[in-house]
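Structure first, sequence second, as always.
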C-alpha cells in the first residue's frame, strides 16, 4: 500500500530598524519550504522518493548597494530499501538543482546499512550527501556585523562517508561511536578582520574534514539523566589565510538532570569548543555552563530560574558576537 506525505510553510523576516554604518536598510525576506514523499512496495522491498524545495525571495538592499534577487533549491531523492535478515539497507541518490549558485546541478549518494550484530550491538555504515541550508535569515540573526557585500549560497556536501557502532542496554544506556570523512563545496567560514573580533566576513569555499563523534545517554528511571556528545575534527587541504579561525577541532556538550524531590528538577548544561590554531594562535576556548531549577507548581504551571554563562562570557561562538556576561533568568511556563 502506498504512503505519502506533503507539507509546506512560509516564513517572513523584516530587518527594519537595524542601523549599519549610519544606514537603516528596510530589508525583507520571504522563505517558502515544501516537503513531500512517497513510498510503495517495489521489487521485494520499499521504493520511494523525497521532494524538497526552498525558495527565498528578497527585498534586500545591502550597505554597499548590493541588491539580492531570489534563489531556489530543489532536491529529488529516489531510493529503495530492503531488510535482509539482520541487515537493513537503503540505496538512493540526491539530485539537486540550485539557482544563484556556482554549480547549478549536483548529484550525491544516499546509501546506508545497519547490521544487528546482537541484542545490544548495531554496526552502521553510510555514504550520504546533499544540500546544506544557508539561509540569509539565519545568518542575519547571528550578528549585526556580517557584511552584506557578498551573496551567501546554499552549501553542498558531495560525500560524507562514515562507519560506526552503537550499544544499548535496556532503556537506561545508549552509546554510539562514529567516524568518517566529509567533502563539502561552498562551506561557510568566518573570517576575522580586526583584533576586537567585531568586524568579520562570511566566505565560502571547499572543505575536507575527518571526524569522530561519541554520544552517550544514560537514564536512571525517572530520577536522573545524563547525556553527552563529543566531536573531534581534523581539517585537511589548503585554505585561505585565517579562514579556519572559528572552525572547531573539538566540540562537545554535557547535560545532566536530577529529580531532587517530587516536582523539583535541577538541570546542568555544559558546552565547550576549541577552535583551529591559525598562525600559531587560537580564539578563546568556549566553556559555557548553565544551571536551571524547575518546579512544577501545578500540572499545567511551573516556575524556573536559570543561571547562564556561569563561567563568564569572554569568548565567541561566532566572530562579531561575544557571549554576554553571567545572567539570571526567572520565569514561568503555563500549559493549556
Amino acid at each position: 500500500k502506498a504512503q505519502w506525505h506533503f507539507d509546506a510553510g512560509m516564513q517572513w523576516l523584516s530587518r527594519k530598524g537595524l542601523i549599519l554604518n549610519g544606514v537603516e536598510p528596510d530589508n525583507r525576506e520571504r522563505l517558502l519550504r515544501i516537503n513531500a514523499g512517497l513510498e510503495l512496495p517495489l521489487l521485494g522491498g520499499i521504493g520511494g522518493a523525497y521532494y524538497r524545495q526552498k525558495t527565498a525571495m528578497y527585498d534586500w538592499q545591502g550597505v554597499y548597494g548590493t541588491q539580492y534577487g531570489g534563489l531556489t533549491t530543489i532536491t529529488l531523492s529516489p531510493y529503495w530499501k530492503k531488510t535482509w535478515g539482520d541487515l537493513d539497507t537503503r540505496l538512493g541518490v540526491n539530485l539537486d538543482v540550485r539557482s544563484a549558485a556556482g554549480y547549478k546541478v549536483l548529484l550525491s549518494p544516499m546509501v546506508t546499512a545497519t547490521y544487528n550484530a546482537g541484542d545490544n550491538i548495531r554496526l552502521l555504515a553510510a555514504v550520504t550527501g546533499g544540500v546544506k541550508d544557508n539561509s540569509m535569515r539565519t545568518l542575519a540573526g547571528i550578528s549585526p556585523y556580517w557584511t552584506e557585500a557578498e551573496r551567501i549560497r546554499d552549501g553542498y556536501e558531495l560525500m560524507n562517508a562514515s562507519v560506526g557502532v552503537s550499544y544499548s542496554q535496556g532503556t537506561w544506556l545508549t552509546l554510539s561511536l562514529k567516524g568518517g570523512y566529509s567533502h563539502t563545496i561552498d562551506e561557510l567560514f568566518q573570517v576575522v578582520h580586526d583584533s576586537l573580533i567585531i568586524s568579520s566576513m562570511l566566505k565560502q569555499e571547499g572543505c575536507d574534514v575527518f571526524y569522530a563523534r561519541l554520544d552517550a545517554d544514560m537514564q536512571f528511571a525517572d530520577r536522573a539523566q545524563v547525556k553527552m556528545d563529543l566531536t573531534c575534527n581534523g581539517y585537511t587541504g589548503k585554505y585561505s589565510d585565517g579562514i579556519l579561525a572559528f572552525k572547531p577541532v573539538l566540540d562537545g556538550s554535557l547535560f545532566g538532570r536530577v529529580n531532587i524531590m517530587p516536582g523539583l528538577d535541577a538541570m546542568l548544561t555544559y558546552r565547550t569548543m576549541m577552535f583551529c590554531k591559525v598562525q600559531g594562535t587560537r580564539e578563546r576556548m568556549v566553556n559555557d555552563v548553565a544551571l536551571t531549577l524547575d518546579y512544577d507548581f501545578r500540572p499545567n504551571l511551573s516556575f524556573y530560574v536559570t543561571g547562564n554563562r556561569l563561567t563568564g562570557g569572554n569568548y565567541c561562538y561566532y566572530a562579531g558576537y561575544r557571549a554576554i556576561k553571567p545572567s539570571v533568568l526567572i520565569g514561568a511556563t503555563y500549559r493549556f
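Margin note: Confidence is low (pLDDT under 50) at residues 140-149.
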